[in-house]
Structure formats: structure tokens, C-alpha cells
Design a protein that fits this description.
about 270 residues, Rossmann fold, Dehydroquinate synthase-like, alpha domain, 5-stranded parallel β-sheet, two-stranded antiparallel sheet, about 45% helix, about 10% strand
Length: about 270
């Protein structure tokens, strides 16, 4: 398989020894990746969102994916890269094939499982509360949430992330993701953990108690996965600054919620 490039995380490399050409990814792609857009003919991606995003950028064709998180990149035509503290999205191609393999998940840390749970739930919330929400996108969100509720198995969570990604492909993200980017960009907090912080504050409770979302027991799902905001509570983060930075992302205005900026700052200051 020397003609194919394997893009993978450090923990998944050993599962695919047949590949001679390998690129190991330790974090989200940075701006320099733009020099390598479409340089590869065939790419297989094994890992989380950063791995799959990198693979999509490198490949001139649709990639083949083996996801290990519920990031949703397996079902979208976008890749994320970072320019310093700013997140960007680059239009690419939706992966052609997605394989869900239990053996890749046996050593997945509990922290990663919790973080990626918050990611898929946040995809559903942002999509259901988007001005671009359609019956199709809503059906994907409902299916993903029901999948999580039906089973706590990690492989089921990964499948749910793939389904929720189909909703994001239609609507994009908005409020929660816009708020998460400054936590990641300025404080290095992993994406899912950043989203979990907002879900655990009064803002999160407001979102899952709205008429559009109240029927789906989102609070109960988070409670079942024992999520709490302790990892970032004690960092002394200036939430007013985070809100101001979030409004640099135009997608924040695609939420159906018209929360005044000062009110949003207040919701995020209550811990």
C-alpha cells in the first residue's frame, strides 16, 4: 500500500502496519498545512477530528476514515485549521467511506470519551438551534441523541458523532462552538472540554430547556456521562474576553437565540 498515505494518531499507528507511508498527527492542523492542500492522491485517516481534518486537507480526493472520536468530521465537507489563536474552516470533500472499528477504541482515555460526548451533544444543540435548521438536519440530531441514550458503548458514541456531523453539514455550528474557540485558541483547552464547560454553566441548561430541545433529555445524557466543568473552573479565565472573541466568528449570529452580549457574559460568569 505504498501509494496510499496513512494519516493517524500516535495511538493508532500500530493497528495498520501494512502502510509504508505514514503521517502521525499530534494536534489540530495549523496554517502551514495550506501549503499542502491536495498533494496526496489517496489518504486513509485513522483517529479523531484533527487527524481526519488533516487527511481531508492533504488529499485531492475523498478520504477513507476510521474515526476514534465523535468529532463529526467523517460526514462534513470542511476541515478546521488554526492561524495562531484563530480557528478557520477550509472547504474540502466529504469522506467516501467510514469504518467503525472497536479495536481502535480499547485504550481510549475516559477524558477523551467525556470530551467527545460533549462535542457530539454540542453539534446537536447548535444544529437544532440554527437559523438553517431543516427537518432533515433535525432528524439527524434526534437520531444521534437517541443513539447515545440507547447505549453507553464508545463505538455507539462514535457512530452518533458521524450522524450528528450530517446535521452540521447542513446547518453549520453557531453559539456553542463560537464560544469554545477562544478557550482553545487562547488557553489550549481541548475542543470537547471547552464545549463541556459551556454545557455545564447556566447557558447550557438554558439551551437544553428550550422548546426546540427540551424533549431530548440532554441534561440527563450529560449527567450520565458524569461531566463537570472542574477542569477549567480554576484557571481564572476572563469570560468577558471569551465572549468578545466569540463574536469575531460570524457563525455566532446563525443561532436562533438573540442573547444580548451582556446577558451572555452574565450567564458565563456564574459557576
Amino acid at each position: 500500500m505504498s501509494d496510499r498515505l496513512l494519516v493517524c494518531s500516535p495511538s493508532t499507528r500500530d493497528f495498520f502496519p501494512e502502510y509504508d507511508r505514514v503521517r502521525i498527527i499530534g494536534g489540530a492542523p495549523e496554517e502551514s498545512i495550506l501549503d499542502e492542500i491536495g498533494i496526496e492522491e489517496e489518504v486513509v485517516a485513522v483517529g479523531g477530528g484533527a487527524v481526519i481534518d488533516t487527511a481531508k486537507i492533504l488529499s485531492c480526493r475523498e478520504v477513507v476514515c476510521y474515526p476514534t472520536t465523535a468529532a463529526g468530521s467523517t460526514s462534513t465537507s470542511w476541515s478546521v485549521y488554526w492561524e495562531g489563536t484563530t480557528k478557520h474552516s477550509l472547504k474540502r470533500q466529504v469522506p467516501s467511506e467510514v469504518f467503525f472499528d472497536d479495536r481502535l477504541l480499547t485504550s481510549l482515555p475516559t477524558r477523551v470519551i467525556k470530551n467527545t460526548t460533549c462535542d457530539v451533544i454540542s453539534h446537536c444543540l447548535d444544529s437544532m438551534l440554527s437559523k438553517k435548521c431543516t427537518e432533515e438536519s433535525k432528524s439527524y440530531c434526534v437520531s444521534a441523541l437517541k443513539m447515545i441514550e440507547a447505549s453507553t458503548e464508545t463505538i455507539n458514541l462514535i457512530r452518533a458523532g458521524h450522524v450528528a456531523g450530517k446535521a452540521i453539514e447542513i446547518t453549520g455550528t453557531n453559539l456553542l462552538h463560537s464560544l469554545s474557540y477562544p478557550l482553545t485558541g487562547f488557553h489550549g483547552i481541548p475542543h470537547g472540554e471547552a464545549l463541556g464547560y459551556f454545557l455545564s454553566l447556566p447557558l447550557g441548561e438554558l439551551l437544553w430547556r428550550l422548546p426546540e430541545t427540551i424533549d431530548y433529555n440532554i441534561g440527563g445524557l450529560l449527567q450520565r456521562f458524569e461531566w463537570d466543568s472542574n477542569p477549567v473552573r480554576d484557571l481564572g479565565i476572563d469570560m468577558d474576553f471569551i465572549v468578545e472573541q466569540a463574536y469575531h466568528y460570524d457563525k455566532i449570529y446563525e443561532s436562533i437565540l438573540d442573547i444580548p452580549k451582556d446577558h451572555l457574559k452574565l450567564l458565563l460568569s456564574i459557576v
